[in-house]
Design goal:
It is a single chain. This protein is α+β, with helices and mostly antiparallel strands. Helix content is about 20%, strand content about 40%. The strands form 2 sheets. Strands 1-4-5-6-11-10-9-8-7 form a 9-stranded antiparallel sheet. The chain has a 3-stranded antiparallel sheet with strand order 2-3-12, with helices on one face. A hairpin with a 6-residue loop joins strand 9 and strand 10. The relative contact order is 0.17. The N terminus is likely disordered.
Length: about 180
């Protein structure tokens, strides 16, 4: 009997794999997020919901109490010092919108900066803040918070907490249909 209980316990631990993020699924506060290609694990912050829009590679976190959003994106290779250089030089998003770091800081494996947006269609009443981290295997994840200016400090803290509590593991090329069930 003890052997059966032990085998069941081992089976449940070994079978408890993280489930990958599902496109179109709404994730509530406290739910686990897992991106196996990046080896990235995180949790939806309190007061936020998340979704990976279909046909997108950018996960979106939305505040349930304000107009703030956090865009979570990955890249398969670092390093952070190269990413810092790109941030400091600025990024042309689409020929009409540019993003540039203001006062970027690379400390203890975390890159962070206020982000200044330029372009004709930028809402000047909003501000942005970004944090990036890379796993030991190479993939990096950036969280870009965009918020009404008066919410900057509160949302900055959420972005920092979201990223500092995230984990990286060895990336996996598991099939996106591995847990698919009609």
């Amino acid at each position: 009997m003890r052997l059966l209980v032990l085998l069941m316990a081992i089976g449940s631990v070994c079978g408890a794999q993280s489930k990958r993020i599902q496109p179109g699924k709404i994730y509530e506060a406290g739910e686990a997020l897992y991106a196996p290609r990046l080896g990235f694990k995180a949790t939806v912050p309190s007061g936020w919901t998340g979704v990976l829009p279909r046909q997108s590679e950018v996960f979106l976190l939305t505040s349930t109490t304000s107009g703030a959003e956090i865009f979570v994106l990955g890249r398969e290779k670092g390093p952070l010092d190269l990413l810092k250089q790109v941030w400091d030089e600025g990024v042309d998003m689409n020929g009409q919108i540019g993003l540039k770091a203001k006062g970027s800081s690379l400390t203890n494996g975390t890159l962070s900066a206020e982000v200044i947006a330029t372009g004709q269609y930028i809402n000047k009443g909003f501000r942005a803040y970004a944090v990036a981290r890379c796993g030991d295997s190479g993939p990096c994840v950036t969280a870009l918070g965009v918020m009404p200016a008066e919410e900057y400090e509160a949302v900055r803290k959420v972005v920092e907490s979201f990223m500092s509590s995230s984990l990286f593991e060895v990336p996996s090329l598991a099939s996106p249909y591995a847990d698919f069930n009609w």
